[in-house]
Structure formats: structure tokens, C-alpha cells
């Protein structure tokens, strides 16, 4: 997403305008969001009048716990803390609620400086990598924009009180000229700007293809054991990069149902010759895992294609993302690459994170009687650039 748009949200905050944050995946709801440190009487009144949901202030849970704020008992995992008030009034007026939000973002305050239970709902945001709700995304958004990591949020309800009416939300945003951003977009910004993967161990790896180094990582992004296999490339040149998703059946068992195994070996060969990086991502079966891939194979044995098989099992045709690959490239200090792939989606996602893919080189796997229909499906339904494979069409 473009940085100019993101900065314009910062300007809006400074000019007293909230942003609308849409959750398209978990709750299908939208909230107004505003930095707690800038909250005032007027914006609080706007939140209550046009948002109409639950008015909350959110901060990182670790920070709140450290300052003495405590969680309410919960039987479903919600992270509500004791509601609070600042000052000596009743706490409910918009000026009082705004001040309570300002004071929460002042980290010198502790629970004892507030009255409780009060009129402002306090929520602890989890790590964004473990939960992607309005609480976490709003805290990260204001933090990424240079504000203290405390946000005010309220759900937006329509005229009938329905919280899931995103058409209404979009019209409302247009009416008040408010920017709209999705949690997914904030997540991508977060991945782009944070350092979530770091090199943890490096060792020599002689292989049949040649000498490499293998890198293991400390991974706060998704906790998976991705690896990179690196062959030093000439100074000043752009490294050849292969981003390969795990395929246990193809890579390890030499299955002929797909082209993965032969792609892996020709990628290693080309990288051994030219220098470059192979990133091995642990997202088996286009992100659905091995057992589900076998279920998908079973459906494909009955005649449906690999795209429909995923859908039939309740998944997207392709569940993968390349956030980890981006973070690994960043940890290796690589920003410009030549990518070995036939898959335009890989290029698009890496470019969105700011990697410049100078060019791609095709990487054709071996065509067999067993993978012909599979490869045709990839070409037709996933737009893979497989036109050059002899015998496929
Ligand atoms: N769900 C599902 N996954 C499959 C199937 N066949 C292969 N895969 C997975 O598809 C992925 C292929 O990964 P890659 O080779 O890196 O990516 P690609 O989309 O083929 O793109 P390029 O090879 O870069 O052109 C692996 O995770 C395989 O396990 C299948 O029939 N169903
Ligand atoms: Mg909500
Ligand atoms: Mg492939
Ligand atoms: Zn495969």
C-alpha cells in the first residue's frame, strides 16, 4: 500500500479526524480509530454519536499489566481490563472520557491514579502476530504513525443497530471524508516495517549441487522453521532467488503428481552455478498442510482440479503468503532480486513489501503424465506462466 496514503492518515489524526478500520476477515465489522493521546471532547462525541458501539481505549497488554491494570475474568478469552475513569466527576461526559484516554497513553500513570470500575472500557492488545483484531491493529497503526501505542476505538453500527453493514460504513466514511483501511492492510504495513525474522544460525552445507550455507532464523512472524540456502553471488550483481513452498510429497518422496521436486532441484542447480538464495517456506500444500493436501489429492483422484479441491475443503485456492520470504530477504540485507518463478502472485506480493523484482526467470518442472492436468490447471486457473513447457498444451 502506498506510503503517501498511510501518511495522510497521520495528517488526518493531527487534524482531528479518525480513520475507519475494517475487519474483513474475523468479525466483519468496522471501527473508528484515533490515537488516545490526541483524544478530545469533540472526537469522543463523534465516536459515541456516529459509532454507537462500545467506546474503548486499548493499549499493549504487557504495558497495562506492568502499570497495575488488571484483567476481568472472562469465559471466552476476551481481553477486557477493569474499566476506568480519570478525575473526580462521574466519568461519563465526553470531556472526562477523552481525558481518561489521554491519561492512559501517559505511561507514568498507574491504576492507582484512576478510579475503577469506571466508564471507559480498557482493552489489552495482544501481539499482532498472535491476534489480528481491531485492538491489535489499531494499536499498531497509531504506533507505526509515530504516536504512543494506545488507541481509542468504537464499533460502527448502522441506523438499525447492525454492526456488520460494511456498505453503510463505507457511505458514512465518504460522508465525513474519512480514510478507510483494512486490518489486513495494517498487517502488511506492520510486516513491512517491523523486524520479525532474524538470522539465528548459519552453517556450511555441501550438497550434490555444490557448496552452500544454510541459515536458520529466529521467527516471531509465524514461528515456523523456514530456512534459506545461500550461495555467495558476485559483488554488485543481483542475486538469483527461489522462494519454494514445502511439498513433502514432491520434494522428499519424489512424487510425480506435481512439479515441485524437479523445480527444487533445478533451482538449487541454477543457484549453485550463479550464486543466490533459496528460501524454503514451510507452507505445505499451498498453505493448507500435508493432511489437507492429501484430502485434496483424494478429491483430485475423483476428477476435480487442484483449485476446486481446495475450495471444496473450505480453503482459498491458494492460502499462501510471502511475508516470511520478505522478512528473510530483509534479514539477509537483500532488496533487489531476480526471481525464479512462473507464479505472478509471488512477484506481486514481494513488490508490495518493497522488494524490487528486477526480472523473473521461468523455472519449469518436469512434465509427466501424472502432473499434466495439474500444470494445465495452474496455467488456466492460477495464471501461472507455463506457456513455454513443451507438450503441455
Ligand atoms: N493444496 C494443494 N497444494 C499442492 C498441490 N500440489 C502441490 N501443492 C503445493 O503447491 C506448492 C507449490 O509451491 P511452489 O512451487 O513454491 O509455488 P508455485 O505456486 O508452484 O509457483 P512457482 O513454482 O514459483 O512457479 C507446494 O506447497 C505444494 O505442496 C495440490 O494439488 N493441492
Ligand atoms: Mg470489535
Ligand atoms: Mg511450483
Ligand atoms: Zn508438489
Automatic annotation (TrEMBL):
Q: Catalytic center at which residues?
A: 318, 320
What CDD domains does the record point to? GTP_cyclohydro2
| Cofactor comment | Binds 1 zinc ion per subunit.
Q: Which Gene3D superfamilies match?
A: DHBP synthase, GTP cyclohydrolase II
Positions bound to Zn(2+): 247, 258, 260
Tree of life domain: Bacteria
Name all GTP cyclohydrolase II domain ranges: 202-359
**This protein's pathway:** Cofactor biosynthesis; riboflavin biosynthesis; 2-hydroxy-3-oxobutyl phosphate from D-ribulose 5-phosphate: step 1/1; Cofactor biosynthesis; riboflavin biosynthesis; 5-amino-6-(D-ribitylamino)uracil from GTP: step 1/4
Residue positions annotated to bind GTP are 242-246, 263, 284-286, 306, 341, 346
Query: EC number(s) for this protein?
Result: 3.5.4.25
Give the record's keywords alphabetically.
Answer: GTP-binding, Hydrolase, Metal-binding, Nucleotide-binding, Riboflavin biosynthesis, Zinc
Question: Which terms in the GO cellular component ontology are assigned?
Answer: cytosol
Q: Which SUPFAM superfamilies match?
A: RibA-like, YrdC/RibB
Q: Name one GO biological process term.
A: riboflavin biosynthetic process
Q: Which reaction does it catalyse?
A: D-ribulose 5-phosphate = (2S)-2-hydroxy-3-oxobutyl phosphate + formate + H(+); GTP + 4 H2O = 2,5-diamino-6-hydroxy-4-(5-phosphoribosylamino)-pyrimidine + formate + 2 phosphate + 3 H(+)
Molecular function (GO) terms for this protein are: 3,4-dihydroxy-2-butanone-4-phosphate synthase activity; GTP binding; GTP cyclohydrolase II activity; zinc ion binding
**The keyword Hydrolase is assigned to this record:** yes
Cofactor(s), names only, from the UniProt record: Zn(2+)
Report the family membership: Belongs to the GTP cyclohydrolase II family. In the N-terminal section; belongs to the DHBP synthase family.
Q: What functional role does this protein have?
A: Catalyzes the conversion of GTP to 2,5-diamino-6-ribosylamino-4(3H)-pyrimidinone 5'-phosphate (DARP), formate and pyrophosphate.
Q: What is this protein called?
A: GTP cyclohydrolase-2
Q: Which organism is it from?
A: Fervidobacterium pennivorans (strain DSM 9078 / Ven5)
Amino acid at each position: 500500500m502506498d506510503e503517501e496514503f498511510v501518511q495522510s492518515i497521520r495528517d488526518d489524526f493531527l487534524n482531528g479526524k479518525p480513520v475507519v478500520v475494517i475487519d474483513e476477515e474475523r468479525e466483519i465489522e468496522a471501527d473508528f480509530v484515533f490515537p488516545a493521546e490526541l483524544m478530545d471532547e469533540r472526537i469522543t462525541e463523534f465516536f459515541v454519536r456516529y459509532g454507537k458501539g462500545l467506546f474503548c481505549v486499548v493499549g499493549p497488554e504487557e504495558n497495562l499489566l506492568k502499570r497495575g491494570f488488571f484483567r476481568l475474568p472472562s469465559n471466552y478469552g476476551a481481553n477486557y481490563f477493569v474499566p476506568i475513569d480519570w478525575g473526580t466527576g462521574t466519568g461519563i461526559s465526553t470531556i472526562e472520557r477523552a481525558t481518561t484516554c489521554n491519561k492512559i497513553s501517559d505511561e507514568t500513570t498507574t491504576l492507582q491514579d484512576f478510579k475503577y470500575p469506571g466508564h471507559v472500557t480498557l482493552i489489552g492488545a495482544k501481539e499482532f502476530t498472535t491476534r489480528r483484531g481491531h485492538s491489535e491493529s489499531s494499536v499498531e497503526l497509531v504506533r507505526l504513525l509515530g504516536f504512543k501505542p494506545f488507541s481509542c476505538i468504537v464499533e460502527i453500527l448502522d441506523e438499525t443497530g447492525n454492526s456488520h453493514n460494511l456498505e453503510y460504513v463505507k457511505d458514512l466514511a465518504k460522508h465525513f471524508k474519512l480514510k478507510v483501511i483494512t486490518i489486513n492492510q495494517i498487517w502488511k504495513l506492520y510486516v513491512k516495517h517491523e523486524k520479525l525474522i532474524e538470522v539465528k544460525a548459519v552453517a556450511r552445507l555441501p550438497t550434490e549441487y555444490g557448496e552452500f550455507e544454510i541459515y536458520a532464523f529466529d521467527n516471531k512472524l509465524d514461528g515456523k522453521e523456514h530456512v534459506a540456502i545461500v550461495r555467495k553471488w558476485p559483488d554488485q550483481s543481483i542475486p538469483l532467488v527461489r522462494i519454494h513452498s514445502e511439498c513433502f510429497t514432491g520434494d522428499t518422496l519424489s512424487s510425480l503428481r506435481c512439479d515441485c521436486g524437479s523445480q527444487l532441484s533445478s533451482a538449487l542447480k541454477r543457484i549453485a552455478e550463479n550464486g543466490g538464495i533459496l528460501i524454503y517456506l514451510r507452507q505445505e500444500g499451498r498453505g493448507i498442510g500435508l493432511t489437507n493436501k492429501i484430502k485434496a489429492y483424494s478429491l483430485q483422484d475423483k476428477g476435480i482440479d487442484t483449485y476446486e479441491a481446495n475450495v471444496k475443503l473450505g480453503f482459498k485456492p491458494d492460502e499462501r503468503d510471502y511475508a516470511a520470504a520478505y522478512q528473510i530477504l530483509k534479514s539477509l540485507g537483500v532488496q533487489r532480486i531476480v526471481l525464479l518463478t512462473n507464479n505472478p502472485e509471488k512477484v506481486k506480493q514481494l513488490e508490495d513489501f518493497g522488494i524490487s523484482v528486477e526480472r523473473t526467470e521461468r523455472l519449469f518442472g518436469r512434465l509427466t503424465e501424472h502432473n499434466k492436468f495439474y500444470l494445465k490447471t495452474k496455467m488456466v486457473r492460477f495464471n501461472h506462466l507455463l506457456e513455454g513447457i513443451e507438450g503441455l498444451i
